[in-house]
Amino acid sequence: MPEVCASRNLDITAGALGLEPWSVPRMVQQVVANSVADGSISSTGLTSQPGRLLIDTSLTYVSDSPLPLMMRLIVLRGYRSIVCSNPNAVQIWDSWNYAIDATARTPDSYNLVNSLCTLGVDVGTNTTAQPYAGVISQDYPSTASEEWYTLPAGSTLNIKYRCYVWTPPPWSNNANANSPSHSASARSATLRLWSFPTTDEGVR
After folding, report:
1. pLDDT tens readout for residues 53-112
2. How far is CA 4 from CA 13, 18, 22, 124, 128, in A?
């Protein structure tokens, strides 16, 4: 069995011992994506999934390490806002998928949801079945999620992220006493990818 006297996390140049770039934790990619469709929602609502696309972005990283890397994805969401009228509901949701040495599937299904911001109100109707006047609004603070992946040496990690807004049915087009007001703002999402080294098992 061959013996190795120095880890592949180390560099030897002109007799001097140093560290390879992949041997320390580092942020290797960052993508900032702004929402392209924030704003009002029409009186017909958005009752079909996945809804209106707000943010669509992706991230790709090719490993430069001869060893596996531990990859940490951090998804940072800007603060979000929703305005909703009685008796409806508005929901902002996001999702992402990853693939190694393949194309990541585009998130377009409500089957996998990573984050939800939901606002709804239902205070009933008057004697003529018209919804009572009522509008509520809510700001949601910035949030973060993280996931970890093992990336083999020399492999490529692909990540696809999307954020949508929809209005879960049933939908009332005469909300707020026939003066509907609905809107949603996701603002932005930041994807940060960090790499962390692994031990060189070839060193004996």
Report:
1. 999 999 999 999 999 999 999 999 999 999 999 999 999 999 999 999 999 999 998 888
2. 17, 16, 19, 75, 84
175 three-state secondary structure? helix
Cβ within 8 Å of residue 198, ≥6 positions away = 67, 68, 69, 70
| CA gap 9, 67 in Å, rounded | 8
Give 125's DSSP letter.
B
Residues 140-168: tens digit of each pLDDT:
999 999 999 999 999 999 999 999 999 99
3-state secondary structure of 33: strand
Domain ranges of the chain: 25-196
Cβ(22)–Cβ(69) under 8 Å? yes
Instruction: Render pLDDT for 37-63 as a digit per residue (tens, 0 to 9).
Output: 999 999 999 999 999 999 999 999 999
Rg of the chain, C-alpha, whole Å: 24
Q: How far apart are CA 145 and CA 113, in angstroms?
A: 12
Asked if 91 contacts 167 with a C-beta cutoff of 8 angstroms, the reply is yes
Give the max Cα distance, the chain. Answer: 89
Distance CA 202, CA 4 (A): 7
